[in-house]
Amino acid sequence: MKIIAKDSSAALAPSDLIAVFGLAESKLPLPTGVSIGKTPLKDFKAGFRDQRSADLEGSIPRALLVGLGKKSDLTPDRLRRAAALAAKAAVAAGLGKATLWLDPKLEDAVGGAEAAGVIMAEGARMATYSYDAQKSKPEACKLKQISLCGSGTAFRKGVARGTALAEANLFARDLQNAPGNHMRPKDLAAAARKLATRSARITCKVLDEAAMRKLGMGSLLAVSRGSSEPAHLIHLTYKPKSKARAKIAFVGKGLTFDAGGISLKPSAKMDEMKYDMSGGAAVLGAFHALGDLDVPFEVHGVVAASENM
């Protein structure tokens, strides 16, 4: 999925759909060159999550009107959800390209142009997520490009940041959603090592059980004794380009599966115990984002990875 930032005042490029966002108490703003008939607009109240489709003429054949509700109720999360609704609609319709256009007057309500870019990129990209790594015949998403239209350089900067954060989120989701036999402690460690190859500012050190014994790490080793899969302690480090303002550490729980005692824990939803490594996935997700962003802090990520059987 490619996310592109464009200026809302520029001429619209060809697309399969344009989504326009409006407030409940205001006239629907439209980009230059887009004209929507009275019938689609007649009953569109622009309440939060309201949607209305309309046919267009020209290089963009259809429009999607998305309501944001009252301006006094407009929050960053509402705009994020609205952008997600537009992206989901494009996916459901089997479209290849979609354009999401935001009136510059709405940007101030969510913190400015840069904040709006972050929000829209997050909502649009994360809404298209689907986990199909274990499917023999995954259905490919036809939506290959989303153009986000806002005002100026600040908006483009925000879109770049929002895209990086969204991709990091989806990376963490992939780790979480993998079944326990595909996301063992060694698989989590391999994912961490791979993160270090994405950026020269990230390094990764993984301790095996022999190294942990030398350090007297009996608690972590005890947890993994019931499993045939050895434990690993993951230590990721990010260093900024310039002198770090401070050091920050994230610590994540990395139990790739937690049986919890078969005689104690009922079988219902036992499969969901693969999510016991979600804290570790969040830490790795943060470093995925750090590989794309310039953060002025030295960041350490520690994940204790083991199976609890």
Secondary structural class: alpha/beta
What is the alpha-carbon Rg in Å? Answer: 23 Å
Any low-confidence stretches, pLDDT <50, length ≥5?
A: none
pLDDT averaged over residues: 94
Report the total helices.
8
SSE string, helix = H, strand = E?
Answer: EEHEEHEHEHHEHHEEHE
Largest sheet: 6 strands, mixed
**What is the topology, as strand order, of the major beta sheet?**
1-6-5-2-4-3
Summarize the structure.
With 309 residues, this protein is an alpha/beta fold.
What does this structure look like?
The protein is of the alpha/beta class and 309 residues long. Helix content is 33%, strand content 22%. The chain contains eight helices and ten strands. The strands form two sheets. A six-stranded mixed β-sheet has the order 1-6-5-2-4-3, covered by helices on one side. It has a four-stranded mixed β-sheet with strand order 7-8-10-9, with helices on both faces. Helix 8 (278-290) links the parallel strand 9 (247-258) and strand 10 (298-308). Helix 3 packs parallel to helix 4, helix 4 (152-177) runs antiparallel to helix 8 and helix 5 packs parallel to helix 8. The longest helix has 26 residues, at 152-177. The radius of gyration is 23 Å and the shape is elongated. The protein starts with a strand and ends with a strand. The model has no long low-confidence stretch (mean pLDDT 94).
